[in-house]
Specification:
Blueprint: H1 5-29, E1 33-34, E2 40-41, E3 46-52, H2 57-69, E4 76-83, H3 85-93, E5 99-102, H4 113-118, E6 119-120, E7 123-133, E8 141-142, H5 144-151, E9 169-172, H6 178-188, E10 199-200, H7 204-213, E11 217-222, E12 231-232, E13 234-235, H8 242-247, E14 253-261, H9 266-275, H10 278-287, E15 299-300, E16 306-307
Parallel strand pairs: 3-4, 3-5, 8-13, 9-10, 9-11
Antiparallel strand pairs: 1-2, 5-14, 6-14, 7-11, 7-12, 7-14, 15-16
Length: 308
């Protein structure tokens, strides 16, 4: 009996080891769905809130709807809100939004350098801005100096720039707007104070409606908001077209940024990758009047300088 005891103990130990290994394998696969290759498949989930630029809003909204319709991302919710680039950058910096949509580089809106350094820039498209007017102004082309004179209040009647004898009504965006910052920087060359009697609207959609309905009105919009209800004004004789922007002959354009605070989480990264996919860049981006990043023959740095 005593001679058999070591053998019995060794056999019992072997059985216990096998049982432990089996339990470990069961625990490792519990609740994980197979992806068909023997590996565990992980479903993405989460809530993404993108806030900011109304110029970028149509693209992010449309891409968000398509993204959520993909079976792989059915557990991810994408919400998109406007409010202007400054609002988007502030909210993503403060952790109130997942993504801050902006028409300008973060350093142009956020004064705190430490907060700027926390943000990661994801450039997803190029947006061009065009001056627009009510159809009854009688003007189709304005020079840079004429635009400066209008938005500074020096010229107040369309007849002084070759149009109808009609008072000029400026429809402007608030100071937090990236669209306004882009227009002032590249069309006017300087920031402008608000003129007494001008109208201020916080969304591109409202600007389009007011300019179309207000006699003598002038404003500016991203190409994605242009339609037949407005006169799209040439800038120094050059039309605001995708081709002219890509070639570098039309100067009023900016990158569209989607900022995250630090590197994005898995769901947010998947959404950003989706926006940069050929499906979105070659379809939604161009369809909505934006310009794919790959189409640009010129590049700009944060200071607005053209770089190669």
């Amino acid at each position: 009996m005593f001679k058999k005891l070591p053998f019995i103990l060794m056999t019992l130990t072997f059985v216990l080891v096998l049982a432990a290994c089996g339990s470990k394998n069961d625990a490792g696969t519990e609740g994980a769905a197979s992806n068909g290759s023997g590996e565990a498949a992980t479903e993405l989930s989460g809530n993404i809130l993108a806030v900011g630029s109304t110029a970028l809003l149509p693209l992010v909204e449309q891409a968000g709807q398509k993204f959520m319709a993909v079976d792989e991302y059915k557990n991810v919710t994408v919400q998109v809100q406007g409010g202007g680039s400054g609002t988007g950058l502030t909210q993503v910096s403060d952790g109130q939004a997942t993504i801050g949509n902006s028409d300008v580089f973060a350093e142009e809106k956020l004064e705190d350098e430490a907060k700027v350094k926390e943000l990661v820039d994801h450039q997803v498209a190029v947006v061009a801005m065009a001056p627009v007017s009510n159809k009854d102004t009688g003007v189709e082309d304005l020079t840079k100096q004429q635009l400066i004179d209008i938005f500074s209040g020096k010229v107040t009647n369309w007849k002084d720039v070759g149009g109808a004898d009609q008072a000029i009504v400026i429809v402007n965006r608030p100071s937090s707007s990236g669209t306004r910052a882009t227009f002032e920087k590249y069309a006017l060359g300087a920031k402008m104070d608000d003129i007494a009697g001008s109208i201020q609207e916080d969304s591109s959609g409202n600007v389009r409606k007011l300019v179309a309905e207000t006699p003598g009105a002038i404003g500016y919009l991203a190409l994605s908001y242009l339609d037949d209800s407005l006169t799209v004004l040439k800038y120094d004789g050059v039309e605001a077209t995708v081709e002219n922007v890509e070639a570098g002959t039309y100067p009023v354009w900016a990158y569209e940024h989607m900022y995250t605070k630090g590197e994005p989480d898995a769901a947010t990264k998947a959404f950003l990758d989706f926006i940069m996919s050929d499906e979105v860049q070659l379809n939604d981006v161009t369809e909505l009047g934006y310009i794919p990043m790959s189409g640009m023959k010129v590049k700009r740095d944060a200071a607005g300088n053209v770089v190669q």
